[in-house]
Amino acid sequence: MAKHTTLYQHGTLALLVPGLLKGTMTMGELLKHGDTGIGTGEGLDGELIILDGKPYQIDASGRVNVVSNSFTMPFANIHYARYSPLAELENVSQDDLNEQIVSLSKAENTFFSVKITGTFSNIKTRAVRKSEPPFYTLAQTASHQSIFTRDQVDGTLISYYSPELFDGAAVAGFHHHFLSNDHQFGGHVLDFQLDKGDVSYQLFDTFEQHLPVNDKEYMQHDFSSDDIVGSIHTAE
Amino acid sequence: MAKHTTLYQHGTLALLVPGLLKGTMTMGELLKHGDTGIGTGEGLDGELIILDGKPYQIDASGRVNVVSNSFTMPFANIHYARYSPLAELENVSQDDLNEQIVSLSKAENTFFSVKITGTFSNIKTRAVRKSEPPFYTLAQTASHQSIFTRDQVDGTLISYYSPELFDGAAVAGFHHHFLSNDHQFGGHVLDFQLDKGDVSYQLFDTFEQHLPVNDKEYMQHDFSSDDIVGSIHTAE
Predict the structure, then answer these.
(1) Which family does the record assign (chains A, B) (predicted)?
(2) pTM here?
(3) pLDDT value of position A38
(4) What single-letter DSSP state applies at residue B67?
(5) Hey, where are the domains in chain A?
(6) Chain A 87-116, CB below 8 Å of chain B: which residues?
(7) Does domain B3-235 have CATH number 3.40.190.10?
(8) ipTM (interface predicted TM)
(9) pLDDT of B164-175, one tens digit each?
(10) Rg (chain A; Cα; Å)
(11) B32 in contact with A, Cβ within 8 Å
(12) Chain A: nearest CA to B82, how far in angstroms?
């Protein structure tokens, strides 16, 4: 398997919907599969972004923390970065950018990652708040999240694009996380306006889906009555 | 990645629906990912079953052929066999067996493989017929398949179970292929009655989905108007 063409995923997005939020992989284990990624902690403990092998958590109070190798997660994506330049862009909105990237990349039917470094004229993020067992469902968590906004901020946005065919395993379309260069601001991106930035791109031919088979609650859960796709698109 | 807990898949089941049937991986490449598997050839050229690293094709005339390393496929599953005994069973139907396996394995939310060796009191298979470009859709192919039945036959059945969450990428539920010990009979299994056999089982924690990113027709296809799940369950 080619190291730079594989997107590794621990957990499947669907398990967040009924609140199967046990941390089933440690950060130490996850980092064996890449150096760049996104995710969340046990109980939906904040928003994670991994840059150059270093894992950062934006918690519900908006603080940016570096997490340890023993930090556990129910869901994360990671890959080995080898991005290629795609475009230098100025003054574009999130929607315009997503559209341009899909059109430039011609890769709507596979997984890819996008990295944007530059200055954002404004950016709106959220960070989810950890719940304790019995964990919140995804809908309950969404009502306990914090929203943050910042103007004129320099930083890095990491995004994964997943094809419609895999909606439910991943978020179909784009899923962006952000960290500012000063490590004072970040989170799961809800909206942004890019002032000026470099957009780069990395195509995957392999989606390596790892499931928490040792978690009895996951293995015994009946997903048939969960509205997976509906709940994900409401919350994400 | 643990060698014996990974199910590798080339192509995604959805691409068969609109007839994206180009052979996008050779058997030689596929065999780098396992020794046991199932699949189909370019244009839906018969039913494949791989046992102990040897790939057999049951063609639409019912003949069993050993295929070469240069044989190409749009879709295949393969893994490294390390099955554990699950049960010795007598006189069970396909439906009973599927139900018992799901109940014994407690693995409805992950991928696993089942291998049955024994005597089948009757078995009904089909083999699809190759089409040339422009390839048939899955529905058109289904109307050009051959059906075979055999009584009292000794052989091996290889099955993959996929969770409902991955329906469309794989066939949710069981997908069985068969080869008789005398190599005179086999195919995609439509129905069977097991007279007496050993059922063994192998659990996967990883589903490694490889996509044909170098096939322009796949990459540029608009899947939004294809009835993926409906067509798969009519045809399979």
Answers:
(1) Belongs to the alpha-acetolactate decarboxylase family.
(2) 0.96
(3) 98
(4) P
(5) 3-235
(6) 106-111
(7) no
(8) 0.96
(9) 989 889 989 999
(10) 17
(11) no
(12) 17
